[in-house]
Write a structure and sequence with these properties.
Rossmann fold, globular, single chain, alpha/beta
Length: 209
């Protein structure tokens, strides 16, 4: 019976991971939580338990290119899968493209419902490209559905202080950021590019970032 329970739990985690569609197989155990990278080791103990998702809090990860933002986002997502939370990973630009297609096909409401029922929504490259007004409206719909019910995680090169200026419509910016920023853990990655560090050692990989 114990073996069957273990197999079922393993299959459930695997289904969550496959649905999430992470671009890299990052694990929370491989994250370097050192202060030199701008991270707090004390908070680093919490993600594995995913209390922040239970509390419907958000996570904002920012830092320069190569700092390990995507790795950290995926590691937090993997931890969520292990704790039986549903997760979806998107490059923000690609999600917005999918929503444009959903509008055209008349399936926008269905897409919003699926996103709303996902425990953790990861939006990578957040605001890399300033969204149009219609795209900002779609983002507001997503954030409004999730606020106080489920957690978004955004990873971006854009500092929080510059979020507002990326939106063409200040009213939409206020509404989106009010739902995203004020109840969020902020993780600011610093230091050299992890890609460069690992390439110089001949170990260019997705592990131990």
């Amino acid at each position: 019976m114990d073996q069957e329970c273990t197999r079922r739990a393993s299959r459930r985690v695997q289904r969550h991971v496959e649905t999430a569609a992470f671009p890299i197989p990052a694990l929370i155990e491989d994250v370097d939580w050192s202060a030199a990278r701008g991270l707090d080791r004390r908070w680093g103990l919490e993600p594995a338990q995913c209390a922040w998702i239970d509390q419907h809090l958000n996570v904002l990860i920012d830092g320069p290119t190569g700092a390990g933002k995507t790795f950290l986002a995926c590691a937090l997502g993997q931890a969520a899968c292990r704790n039986n939370f549903s997760v979806r990973y998107f490059r923000t630009s690609r999600l917005l493209q999918q929503l444009v297609c959903a509008h055209q096909k008349g399936s926008f409401s269905f897409c919003l419902t699926r996103l709303a029922h996902t425990d953790l929504l990861i939006l990578d490259d957040w605001l890399r490209d300033p969204p149009s007004v219609s795209q900002a409206q779609d983002l507001l719909e997503i954030m409004d559905d999730r606020f106080g019910r489920s957690s978004p995680l955004v990873a971006t090169q854009v500092p929080v202080a510059e979020y507002h200026a990326r939106f063409a419509n200040p009213t939409l910016a206020d509404a989106i950021l009010d739902r995203l920023v004020h109840n969020a853990h902020r993780l600011n990655l610093v230091g050299e590019s992890q890609r460069r560090i690992h390439s110089t050692t001949g170990r260019m990989s997705s592990s131990t970032v």
